[in-house]
Amino acid sequence: MSANDQLQFMPLDLDTFTGSERFMAGTRLGAAFSQGMRSYLRAAYTEAIEHFKAALIAAYVDGEEQAQIFERERAIIYLYIGNALAFQDDWEGALREYLEAVQTDPQLAEAHYNLGVSFAAMGQIDRAIAAFKETLEHNQGLYEAHFALGRCYQLADDAGRAYIHYSSACNARPQAAEPRYYMGLMHQSHGAHELAQRCFAEALRVEPTFVSPDPEPGESTLVTRSEDEVVQWYYRLSNALKQQRYEDEAERIYRALLQWRPQEYQGHYLLGNLLARQRRFDEALEEYGKVPPQHRQYVESRLRMSAVLRMQKQTKQAYDLLFECARLNPGNGQLFLNMGKLLYDMGLNTQAVRAFERAVQLLPRDPQAHYLLGFMYSSLGRENWALAAWRKAVELAPDAHSLRFDLGYMYVRRGRYDLAANEFQHVLDHWPEDVETSFMLGLCFKELVEPARAIPLFEKVLRRNPRHAQALYYLGACYLQIGNTSLGKAYLRRYDHLARQSPTTTPGAASARRRNSSATKQSS
């Protein structure tokens, strides 16, 4: 469809008599409205307009109670005046009346639709789209609005939204051929002739008497494009549908592409991703498995397959899959990184370390690789090596705050409270309400003999968690350090009382639990 194509839609009429009988008889308003409708129905539009205007005037000046009309009824009269003008191609006049209708009754869906029709007729596509979308806010199932939006989006070259609204139009009116026909034209204009012919055939199946605007659909507008251009159309349309969360429609397009070109391995990979997101894991594995070793996304497809198998608790199969892939691609660091995670899951820590060391060699700028290697070193008691790995990870990802917390905790274990305080301060700047970071920073200041800086941090912890035993103990000790004996002893008595109620934990034990939890998340 070219940018110069004119969109032509018919204004909608209403069954105005339903609910309006009370002003249809015995009043000047009713008489004028009845005459207007008779003239309208026999296409005497100029005469109809005069009667409708007389009805509006009567509604304002007639004093009879039954002549009073609701806003909905007044909006309907404006709508019919607009229709009468539209049928005479006076779109500016029609637009004025439709605007009166929507201002009088903003809930009248047909008035919004006809407003969109007038904008489309005047070439104001963006405003037409806005009006049709507003229509659907008030009547989600209105066939005409979905079809009109499909046509507008097609003209605007927004294939994804056009496809969605044509599909919605088909759902709203299953026996309608037009949306299927225009969907076919959209496919055809991009060279997807098999999809186009399918749409044309479906249009004639649901409405055998359908006569298209193009007397020979599929012939007069036939275009020739390279196969690569056609393939890109499939991908573009599928991607647009996914972005708008119409995954079923995107799947249909992928499958149509793969039926046409089974060797389109990019399509198998993307379809596998789509199925995996829907947790249709067996189908996803089947699609990933069709990507051959020579294809550029072979490694990525195997990584995805491994992730699916890991989620299904098939850890050994996931590892074997990556091992075979690594034999073909020994220079791919992501393979070794994920192999290390799987080896850790299987409890093979020494082998996991070797895999992470290889990953770091191949991915020297990857902070996660350095972090996981440090975590494994820590698990094996190699704290110096762990510190070196984590320092490198922080250098590469200075905003990785959970990583900084773990590095600070390692410094605490080694008695480097000054370095630990620096890391915990960074974390607290980002997570100012985090209880354990506040506690650990307070602990560092206490050990650095800076009780005045530690006290507000421990108090902050206790405001959030009054039963934090270590914070009570250290807060009492800090107050004793600064000479406030009464307050210090009071906090220590609270600590003793809490300790008698439940077993005590060593300072930093909660932080250790948090560190292990953080490492588990990093490895997943």
TrEMBL record:
InterPro entries: TPR-like_helical_dom_sf, TPR_rpt, Ycf3. Residues 501-524 are annotated as: Disordered. Keywords: Repeat, TPR repeat. It comes from the Bacteria. TPR repeats lie at residues 75-108, 109-142, 177-210, 333-366, 367-400, 401-434, 435-468. Pfam families: TPR_11 (PF13414), TPR_16 (PF13432), TPR_19 (PF14559). PROSITE patterns: TPR. This is Uncharacterized protein. It comes from Candidatus Viridilinea mediisalina.
